[in-house]
Specification:
alpha/beta, 2 domains, 17 strands
């Protein structure tokens, strides 16, 4: 059966520089399948940035037009907004994304407020869902409005040699079935899937490396700290690039000034050390063999069950040799004396090395609750 493509969807395909959308069954439950866009986006870097610097997106990070790190949701939102659509990426899960990305985000309440008058049933349902948090889970990544048109888009990476592809979660299927099929609040032509493919990253260095992207939790990233001595400006040993001197009673003073240039290639390569395939398999096999247990220890929701030796005793942390904490994280070190190694570390070492110092990353992440 021939299905005419709505003009609004053809316009979106043009914005994404993608072929005309087609119906595909991804598992959301839309009759006749979901309208599917198949754009290609340029990857950010090879190897990808560490999980602690990119909102956990890793190889799904993209290079935007200014040479900085981005993601599919942000890039699609920017394209739609330039074409007159209002709304954007509905970020409903916690995390620490680059601060720049927040300009492309919106909330369920804000989207409901811009709905056209004839869609007040949909606006009311969204508002109620957000207030009760009963149906906000599974909401599409992007919801936009232009005039009387409403469009909801879910971004899914297509399987390739680097990625197994994104699967449809049960909560996403339930949300779409409820909005499109059960209550008919959203027309089947108003829901689409951005089924995107990653092209290899450019060989050129990014304008700003991930470690210099400020985030809500790390607003000082990208700021260079220097120790300015108390020497006078006319001293032969003084540095003209230092900040102006201040009276410090003979003590050194820490001055802060914006970074002027991105890090060199060597620094970026150090931050991008990747584990080997055998190390990845070791971490994943270790997770699969022991599973994950729920805990609130060290403010984390999950931790891997501890490793035991042949005698049944807990093996000590491979980093600090502490044996009290049974939890062990597969931590891959990118710098320092353990650079390139995979060590099963305790929660304390995970916090100090990965969360604070940033010289290591958790190689296998716990399941999402």
């Amino acid at each position: 059966m021939y299905l005419a493509i709505p003009p609004a969807l053809l316009d979106v395909a043009r914005l994404l520089n993608a072929p005309s959308p087609s119906r595909r069954r991804h598992g959301f439950g839309v009759p006749d399948g979901e309208w599917t866009f198949e754009p290609v986006f340029r990857g950010f870097s090879d190897p990808p940035p560490g999980v602690g610097y990119c909102f956990g997106k890793r190889s799904s990070c993209l290079r935007d037009s200014s040479g900085r790190m981005s993601c599919t949701e942000v890039e699609v939102t920017k394209l739609l907004r330039r074409a007159g659509w209002r709304g954007g990426w509905i970020n409903t899960y916690s995390g620490d994304p680059p601060s720049r990305w927040s300009a492309s985000t919106t909330t369920v309440e804000q989207v409901a407020a811009i709905m056209p008058a004839r869609r007040r049933d949909l606006a009311g349902w969204l508002t109620e869902a957000a207030s009760k948090r009963s149906r906000s889970g599974g909401i599409p990544d992007i919801v936009v409005v232009r005039g009387d048109h409403v469009l909801a888009l879910e971004c899914k990476r297509r399987q390739d040699n680097e990625s197994r592809g994104d699967v449809v979660k049960r909560s996403q299927e339930m949300w779409v079935r409820s909005a499109v099929v059960d209550q008919a609040l959203l027309d089947p032509d108003e829901f689409g899937v951005v089924w995107w493919t990653r092209a290899p990253a450019p060989r050129t260095l990014p304008t700003v490396v991930p470690e210099d992207e400020p985030t809500p939790r790390h607003p000082d990233r990208g700021v260079r700290r220097r120790w300015a001595s108390t020497e006078t400006a006319g001293s032969p040993t003084s540095n003209a690039r230092h900040a102006p001197r201040h009276r410090t009673n003979g003590r050194k003073r820490l001055t802060v000034e914006p970074a002027e240039t991105p890090k060199d290639e060597g620094a970026f390569a150090m931050a991008g050390i990747e584990p080997t395939e055998s190390q990845k398999r070791e971490a994943l096999d270790g997770i699969a063999s022991r599973g994950w247990a729920r805990s609130k220890a060290a403010s984390h929701d999950y931790y891997p069950i501890g490793i035991r030796d042949d005698a049944g005793d807990y093996r000590p942390c491979e980093h600090c040799l502490a044996a009290r904490n049974p939890a062990r994280w597969p931590l891959f070190f990118r710098a320092g004396e353990h650079a390139g190694k995979l060590l099963w570390t305790c929660s304390t070492c995970k916090l100090s090395q990965a969360d604070s110092r940033g010289i290591a990353v958790v190689l296998a992440e716990p399941p999402r609750s």
